[in-house]
Amino acid sequence: MDLNNTFSAAGFNEKMHQGLDRSYYTDLYSKFSEFHQNEYNIFFHLLTTPLGLLGLMSLIRVITNSSTIGMAMASFYVLTLVAVEQLPLSVFFGTTALVFVIMMSSRALKLNMISSFVCIALGYGLQDLAHIITGEKTYDSTYALSGELDVSSLSTWATFFLDHCYYLLPLCVDLVIPETFIRIDPPAGMQNLYTHAYALIPLFMWTLGSYCLDSKNGFCFFPGVHYSGRVVQCQLCTDDKESRKKDLKTVRDWAIAHCPSKQTSSHWWFSDLQGSVRQAFENCAKSSIISKMMREQFSERHYCVDIVEGMNEIYVSGPAREEECFNSDQIFYSKHVDGPLGFVPFVSTYRCIVGMDKNLAISTHFPMKPLSQNATEGEVIGFDFNREIHYITKDPSKEAESDEFRVVLKLHYCMYPRVLRPLGWMMHGASVLYNKTFRALFLKTIKPHSYYEHFLSWNVIFTTSLFNYLETFVGERNMVYFILAASVSYITGNNMMFLYMTSFIHYFRYISTYYYRSETDYGSFKRDVLLFKTIALTQLGLVYLFPEFMATYVYKCDFMPFTFDAVSVLMIASGYVISILATHALGLDRTYFGSELGFCSYERTNQFPYGFIPHPMIVSQVWALLGIAKAPHVNHLLPYVIPTHIALYMTHMLQEQFDIYQKPKISDEKKLL
User: Radius of gyration over alpha carbons of the chain, in Å?
Assistant: First the structure.
């Protein structure tokens, strides 16, 4: 085949600058299929191509010591395929599924470097062997003279070779799709995703990094995936040589000798310590027990763990001083997040509270875990400085049993992926800078006198409360996801994208959390499913009540006028009333898997609608959704949305009916005991 009659480098570049127009993929597939007519050759390509890519992804995993980079590259690859307008949706989804299988296989098999190279070599070699056996020429013979590398025109050869590699997977998928199969082209607006990739890729990575924060949440790539709690605990006072009991006593005695205030909290930086006290503090910070605790959350293979000495301190709790108007000590007794840097993806700064005395009066609470703990002697409670909501309470009835002062160490660690060291170093420095700046503000407002100091105190408390409400009811990582969904909608010029990206999240979260269960971050689970369910139903409600407005100004499409249907209204009302009654009968926690996840005891109820309607929670909501679907103007505007809602609801109902979940391993059961 004449190379000049097949493609030209100039023509290729022109196509690329035009955004991979409609004819490009069609022409490529037409020529590629000429060399892949034999069904056995096609079958071997479907085996050898994924095999070679499995080797490539495994090699990347070995080199980077992480699955995250490979997953990000695979996601980027799938995103770029959206730009190929002539690529049928069936091929796109088939390719996406195959990429997912390859990534999961790479993670499960954990091939070493030699095995990875063997897979790459076999993938390439067996493809050529398949052509020899079936008697079909190879496609690369069209741009490599006599099947050899053309060194006289290396740039042209490289262009076509890379093009061949890039499209190989979708081309192989396309070969097995019957001609009679419905081949729907992607919406025209999807082309803009490729055009604006320079903005979308960083935004996508930001979103990914807001969920993938540690080894236990390494594959939590969007809000519909099970999310594990991130509060960790250990005990430094043990019976072996690793015990830090003497070191803790040394530090506490030093703090008491410096006469801490009984009216306010007291603080001393690690840099203020000298001699044996400094060494004792350092021994605690470098304890192998704390290191092991951290490594259970952040694996040695994937993450660096650095001590953040610039934030480490000795802290003595002060009273709440609720009778005083606006003082910074009140922050500790109100729900708050310590730092504002939770928007930085992939990296975490952890604060560890280390108890040093007999403290029974003051408890630290983590409502998202949920967990309440007294930091008594040797107890360590670690949490994300920038993301975890917490607060303390004081029980006056236990003060007599406790030591006079509650003295704790505040140890800090910065965790970041090994492949993202610069980002980790930036987080390290930014956390120290923020902590020192905020401490200066805190000390200035601990006992305010002037109007200006009172204003600063009010501002500290107000911003702390505002941030707490945002994290409690929305979640910072969910806000990043909403920004991504809104950006995709804006770039594609199709506001339906926001609806699709936010309407079904809660179902996936139900299914994944019910299945995995282990170490669930229960507070964020309830928050997220309620948030996304509210957004989904709000969008359906707006379409139901205001179809003309939503079609004209939001979705910019044809519409049918609102038609009142008494049966539809009755179905919706009765469905959601029964759903509310079912929630009341179980209680909110048991409604959202509290019993299954181990956060509350199992209780059987016969209160209506239980005992009268099977699976009343799901059945009632499916009934209400059918009521919405009965309205013709909703079906006209959103023909596939409600069937998808119902299909996902029914999937989860079957999961509950047959109790499909991951059984705990024997080692996990021993931990619980």
Answer: 30
Whether omega before 609 lies within 30 degrees of 0, making that bond cis, reads yes
- Total Cβ atoms within 10 A of residue 80: 15
Close Cβ partners of 665 (under 8 Å, ≥ 6 residues apart):
none
Confidence of residue 13 (pLDDT cuts 50, 70, 90): very low
Query: Cα 269 to the chain's mean position, in Å?
Result: 34
Query: Is-contact 45 37, C-beta < 8 A?
Result: no
pTM, two decimals, is 0.82
Helix 476-492 and helix 197-211: axis angle, to 10°? 160
For 160, 252, 354, 381, 570, the CA distances from 257, given in Å and listed in that order, are 76, 9, 19, 25, 73
**Distance from the first to the final alpha carbon of the chain:** 71
- The string of DSSP letters for 51-84 reads HHHHHHHHHHHHHHT-SHHHHHHHHHHHHHHTT-
Cβ proximity of 67 and 61 under 8 Å: yes
Mean of the per-residue pLDDT values for the chain? 87
* Most distant CA atoms of the chain, gap in Å: 94
How high is the pLDDT of residue 450?
Answer: 83
Q: Over pLDDT 90: what percentage of the chain?
A: 61
Reported as a single tens digit per residue, the pLDDT across 74-83 is 888 887 787 6
Neighbour count for residue 123 (Cβ, 10 Å): 20
The secondary structure of the chain in percent helix, strand, coil, rounded to multiples of 5, reads 60, 10, 30
Indicate the DSSP class of residue 333: G
For the chain, which residues make up each domain, given as ranges?
Answer: 3-190, 232-473, 494-672
Q: What is the pLDDT of residue 181?
A: 56
Amino acid letter, residue 100: F
Q: Which CATH class is domain 232-473?
A: mainly beta
Angle between helix 566-586 and helix 616-630 axes, rounded to 10 deg? 160
Three-class SS string for 542-566?
HHHHCHHHHHHHHCCCCCCCCCCCH
245: enclosing H helix or E strand: helix 245-257
Give the tokens for residue 150: 């053309």
| HEC letters along 475-516 | CHHHHHHHHHHHHHHHHHCCCHHHHHHHHCHHHHHHHHHHHH
Query: Alpha helices of 82-229 — where are they, by DSSP H?
Result: 89-109, 113-134, 154-176, 191-195, 197-211
Quick: pLDDT tens for 157-198: 778 888 888 899 999 999 988 655 555 655 666 667 767 877
Q: Smallest Cα–Cα separation from 158: which of 28, 26, 12?
A: 12
Quick: pLDDT tens for 344-364.
Answer: 999 999 999 999 999 999 999
In SS3 terms, 607-647 reads as: CCCCCCCCCHHHHHHHHHHHHHHHCHHHHHHCCCHHHHHHH
The backbone torsions φ and ψ at residue 232, rounded to the nearest 5 degrees and listed phi first, read: -120, 155
10 exposure class (CB count in 10 Å sphere: 0-12, 13-18, 19+): exposed
